[in-house]
Amino acid sequence: MLTERRPILVLGALVLSMTVAAGVLRVLEPGAVPPLGGVSLLSIESDATERPEDKLFDVAVPERTWRAIVVHDSRTVAGSYDAIDKAHRRAGKDGCGYHLVLNNGTGGEDGRTEVGYRWKYQEPGDYLVGPNANWYHQQAIGVCVVGDADRGSFTPSQKRELVWLVRQLQREFSIPAEYVFVDVGAGDGPTPGFSEGQFRQSLLGGRPQTAALR
Fold this sequence. Notes:
The protein is an alpha/beta fold.
């Protein structure tokens, strides 16, 4: 009887070992690991045990003393952190120049903010050019909203999440509304896709007037 059962036991052990091996290979497969370890934010997370703001400030090194925030749009209809990262590398930058990228549903969940390595390791940004660019890169948190405000509106989820995100950053680093700089669209007047006045009224200590990059 034992002799008859032995092939069955051997076959069962073989199937079990193959299943375990397949699971290990899936974990080790490079494509199975999401960018940045899957660090992303959404203000209406279903898991109430970990708040989005806890994820936002869970950085790998001590926080810098940030003094300002710069909000850009990607000037593209579609995009994501990975897409911007690749574009910036082609332009000679050391990866994505922004600290945080807010998706519009084309490259990631609409309204979800992807946390870049510059934020995770509290490194300077690289998203401006000009004589004052270094000050902003060293002192200001770079936030990029995927979209082109000259050609269309940000999504309702993006607008809501942008206000939530900027308010969290203001509160954490005591950044006044006048040091939240908005630079979306071509920069030659109001953009049809984004009301800066409404955005500013939603900020901590916000006022209707604009704060221009200097």
